């Protein structure tokens, strides 16, 4: 009988200390927290991205990455062509996805002819170009940000970087790095 009372007392203290009965399931991480892309800085090449054949490059002393060793490089050849980099992520219900990225532009252009268009398509919302960057973006890394907003249902978000270069007007290179995808 004394053992029963001791065991019952310990169980009561445990319930008081933990705030209730455990049902054997671990506490879940909040669905709207943290970075959700496995390769935001391109350190693993194009893993997690759909990309053109020569998008990811490794920085060097003359053109270093924003952080790490790699970044995505678009255009820069003074030829008529386009480059694409895209990724799709799931946004849980009642969460907002914020996308932040860094861009550096180097050019020999004197008028607008080369562009980097950054867009986002979210389930239920028409695709939209959020930024249209040209030769005057600057040779220093600059940060940009966009978000999905919240919705009561789970959605997918596709983020696209599309560079368009026209021959004969000078070469423009757009470098993108540290594309963070944060849920809140």
What can you tell me about this protein's structure?
- It is a single chain.
- β7 and β8 (125-133) form a beta hairpin.
- Helices cover 9% and strands 44% of the residues.
- With 184 residues, it is mostly beta strands.
- Strands 1, 3, 4, 6, 9 and 11 form a 6-stranded antiparallel beta sheet that branches. It has a 5-stranded antiparallel beta sheet with strand order 2-5-10-7-8, with no helix packed on it.
- It has 1 helix and 11 strands; from the N terminus they run αβββββββββββ.
- The chain is globular, with a radius of gyration of 24 Å.
Defining traits:
184 residues, mainly beta, 6-stranded antiparallel beta sheet, 5-stranded antiparallel beta sheet, 11 strands, 44% strand, globular, disordered N terminus
Short description:
With 184 residues, the chain is mainly β.
Explain the layout of strands and helices.
Layout (H helix, E strand, L loop, with lengths): L1 H17 L15 E2 L14 E2 L4 E3 L11 E6 L5 E11 L5 E11 L7 E8 L2 E9 L8 E6 L7 E11 L6 E12 L1
Antiparallel strand pairs: 1-11, 2-5, 3-4, 4-11, 5-10, 6-9, 6-11, 7-8, 7-10
Shape: globular
Strand content: 35-45%
How many DSSP H or I helices?
1
Distance between the termini: 53 Å
pLDDT under 50 segments (min length 5)? 1-28
Q: Pairing-aware structural class of the strands and helices?
A: mainly beta
Taking the sheet with the most strands, its summary is: 6 strands, antiparallel
| Rg result | 24 Å
- Helix-strand topology string: HEEEEEEEEEEE
DSSP, total strands: 11
Average pLDDT over all residues: 83
Helix content: under 10%
